[in-house]
Amino acid sequence: MSTFNAPKGTYDLLPPDSAKFLAVREAIAAPLRNSGYGYVETPGFENVELFARGVGESTDIVTKEMYTLTTKGGDELALRPEGTASVLRAALEANLHKTGNLPVKLWYSGSYYRYERPQKGRYRHFSQVGAEAIGAEDPLLDAELIILADQAYRSLGLREFRILLNSLGDKECRPVYRTALQDFLRGLDLDEDTRRRVDINPLRVLDDKRPDVQKQLTGAPVLRDYLCDACKAYHEEVRELLTAAGVAFEDDVKLVRGLDYYTRTTFEFVHDGLGSQSAVGGGGRYDGLSEMIGGPALPSVGWALGVDRTVLALEAEGIELELPPTTEVFAVPLGEEARQVLFTTVTELRRAGVATDFAYGGKGLKNAMKSANRSGARYAIVAGERDLAEGVVQLKDLESGEQNPVPLAEVVTTLLEKRA
Ligand code: ATP
Ligand code: MG
To answer: Which of 204, 221, 238, 388 is spaced 20 to 30 A from 355 at the CA atom?
Structure first.
């Protein structure tokens, strides 16, 4: 204990669990790296206006969940609540879209902040890995991203996730649907906040999780019936590409998602073992976002997967990741001379790529062997005065208990052979 605890809605990542988080981030990133996506890193905060415009003034993220601050210099900033607006801002600022090489494909990994009511799977600080393909309208890209997320989850061993898919239409057909939906919603018994939402962003009402609202929504007009021919054809192609790739999905005509900027393809990955925080990731096409933040027309598509919830999903499925052992060899010196000699050996082993640790602090043999076992190492090298006088160290297999002297000069090669 200290005087302080982690702030509400946050938690610390500590060994050994932290290794799982790194492995999940890596597993999500691997298919992206392998598919032409370059790594992008943006600041943890941005001008608040970027999110107000880029995420949407009427969204929960902007109205309730943003951490905003005024700097001593008077700038209005916000901790980033999501990645897409920042990544697009960075790409535009660096003129990546002008190199004549579209789409610009980028991936990112980092911390995001939302002032939410903390509960399992919902935190105020969380981690996402995301991908964006900027500046091309091509159903192959929509399909590519969904296929890569599916590949990432599968590589982790996850099986109980589902892909929900919908089309939100474009600036041709969505306004027509919007009006029809508003007409329907205005006939319902809704609270004042929700009625205001009907005026500003009626599609978001479909996303309302409250059962009394959901009940009233049966019979609401669905966007699918209003899609223009271009949107219909586009969506049909995405669906066919996914099917051809063997990626199963479910059509979900009610899927709208929380951000304002989506057009056409929208999707969510849900995991059935997570209770109410079931969305592990989501994304879609955002053809209008660039213009909303003052850029040129740049049709784009992307997703963000939540690392925290993916780890919870692994736990829900009882999946133990096969992580490489953090320590392979543990050195146990007995006496001052052995400390010096074995420390040199440890350095050599590390330089040769063997994960090695040491019994620091002048521990006795019993305690040192306990540390060796706890480290998960397969081998211990133990040396005392008598061993060193004979030019050997004792190499102990911690699994079998077998122990043999090895010439000091051959320890590194012997261990490299054993682990091969
Ligand atoms: P939800 O509907 O659960 O609030 P969302 O639609 O707000 O999710 P997105 O903005 O699409 O989520 O973010 C993508 C992913 O990031 C989510 O699927 C989830 O895994 C993760 N995520 C979002 N908010 C949080 C949070 N507060 N805590 C933990 N993970 C989160
Ligand atoms: Mg949310």
So the answer is: 388
Which amino acid is residue 124, in one-letter code? R
- The finding on whether 112 has its CB within 6 A of some atom of ligand 1 is no
Where in the sequence is the domain holding 77, given as residue range(s)? 17-167+251-316
Domain C-terminal end among 286, 316, 346: 316
- Cβ of 271 closer than 6 Å to ligand 1, yes or no, is no
Give DSSP secondary structure letters for 189-216.
Answer: ---HHHHHHHHH-GGGGGG---HHHHHH
Q: Is residue 412 in a domain?
A: yes
Instruction: Name the token pair of 328.
Output: 């392979």
Q: Would you give per-residue pLDDT tens digits along the chain (420 residues)?
A: 789 999 999 999 999 899 999 999 999 999 999 999 999 999 999 999 999 999 988 788 998 999 999 999 999 999 999 999 999 999 999 999 998 889 999 999 999 999 999 999 999 999 999 999 999 999 999 999 999 999 999 999 999 999 999 999 998 999 999 999 999 999 999 999 999 989 988 988 988 889 999 999 999 999 999 999 999 999 999 999 999 999 999 999 889 876 667 899 999 999 999 998 999 999 999 999 999 999 999 999 999 999 999 999 999 999 999 998 889 999 999 999 999 999 999 999 999 999 999 999 988 999 999 999 999 999 999 999 999 999 999 999 999 999 999 999 999 999 999 987
Whether residue 301 is found in the same domain as residue 336? no
Number of the ligand 1 atom closest to the C-alpha atom of 278: 3
Q: Of 122, 207, 261, 305, which is best to mutate to test ligand 1, by the most ligand atoms within 8 angstroms of its C-beta?
A: 122
CA distances from 131 to 145, 256, 420 (A): 8, 19, 36
Find the CATH number of the domain harbouring 411: 3.40.50.800
Which atom of ligand 1 lies closest to the CA of 81? 10
164 lines ligand 1 (CB under 6 A): no
What is the spatial distance between Cα 368 and Cα 361, in angstroms, rounded to a whole number? 10
Query: Within 13 Å of residue 104, how many CA atoms lie on the same side as its CB?
Result: 20
Among the bound ligands, the one closest to the CA of 207 = 1
**Which atom in ligand 1 lies closest to the alpha carbon of residue 305?**
15
